[in-house]
Write a structure and sequence with these properties.
Shape: globular
Distance between the termini: 35 Å
Radius of gyration: 18 Å
Strand order of the largest sheet: 3-2-1-4-5-8-9
Order of helices and strands: EHEHHEHEHEEEHEHHEH
Structural class: alpha/beta
Largest sheet: 7 strands, parallel
């Protein structure tokens, strides 16, 4: 793998992955794509060796005619697509539409350019309705596989505010379907991995800062009723540690396809959390993902 392009490079997840791939011995160069220039604080976090591998391009993924990102994709062997209009589950329908437009542009351009691997950052919120009955009653620990029917959007309460991630999750669910269609059209020339990522918080990302709020932008109230406890358990067990995140997406870029059933696969992206509903069978089998962390530990 010579060149990896990472969209949303200045955001929480994109920046973590830029740093990881810039340190990878099998990566010659990393192209970071984002709407804005990187901050001086971020650039200062790169070692000299990492900086030598990195190129950062300010561009607009919503603009198909923006040649800056189109030309960058043409030079890439893999594209990892983190970019979103609003990366948090409280995104609006307008945010959702714009995020899906970015995914459409990036995925189509990758297939046109003959990129070998496209990694789409989906979300556990695609299966959010499994948090509550009646769907919650149909699965046990480890039984929420990616082969189950989509149940889009998580619904929960933060104090007096009702939260519904359906708009955010629709862009992710639709992005997965787009990847499936394009993988079929590309006939294996471009292979696709959709990762239903869990909760990987900004910065240190430790279990102690997870909460029933379900998002780092909101604070939770103090009423610890049954709904609170259910949401708290659900969101805590979506945890994806920083080192498991780096390993998971590294494997999504590099994994060979011999064990894949089709040129497009979907996997859950969480740590090895005791008692969680999420199945890691697909990620282990198709990507050789071996998570090391557990929110209960």
């Amino acid at each position: 793998m010579k060149t990896v392009a990472i969209t949303g490079a200045s955001g929480n997840l994109g920046w973590k992955f830029v740093q990881h791939m810039a340190s990878h011995a099998d990566v010659a160069s990393v192209i970071g794509l984002d709407l804005d220039e990187l901050s001086s604080d971020q650039l200062a976090q790169l070692s000299a060796d990492q900086a030598d591998k990195c190129e950062f391009i300010a561009c607009d993924l919503l603009d198909w005619h923006d040649r800056r990102w189109r030309e960058a994709i043409k030079r890439s062997d893999a594209v990892v697509h983190f970019a979103a209009q609003n990366p948090f589950p409280e995104a609006s329908w307008d945010d959702s539409n714009r995020s899906l437009d970015m995914t459409l542009n990036a995925a189509l351009a990758s297939v046109d350019a003959g990129v070998s691997r496209f990694v789409f950052v989906s979300s556990n919120h695609v299966m959010g309705r499994y948090k509550d009955a009646p769907l919650a009653d149909t699965i046990g620990p480890g039984e929420l596989t990616t082969s189950l029917e989509h149940a889009v959007g998580t619904v929960w309460q933060i104090g007096e505010r009702a939260m519904d991630s359906t708009p955010y999750a629709v862009a992710k669910s639709s992005g997965e379907r787009l990847c499936q269609a394009l993988a079929t059209r590309a006939e294996g020339r471009t292979t696709f991995v959709s990762v239903r990522i869990g909760w990987c918080q900004p910065g240190e990302n430790v279990p102690a800062t997870l909460s029933a709020a379900g998002t780092p932008t909101q604070a939770i109230g103090i009423n610890r009723d049954a709904d609170f406890e259910r949401a708290d358990y659900w969101f805590r067990h979506m945890w994806l540690s920083n080192r498991d995140f780096a390993r998971l997406f590294e494997r999504a870029v590099f994994a060979e396809t011999e064990t894949w059933p089709t040129p497009n696969i979907v996997v859950n992206g969480v740590s090895n959390n005791t008692g969680m509903a999420w199945s890691l069978d697909e990620a282990r089998r198709f990507l050789n993902y071996d998570p090391q962390d557990d929110v209960e530990a």
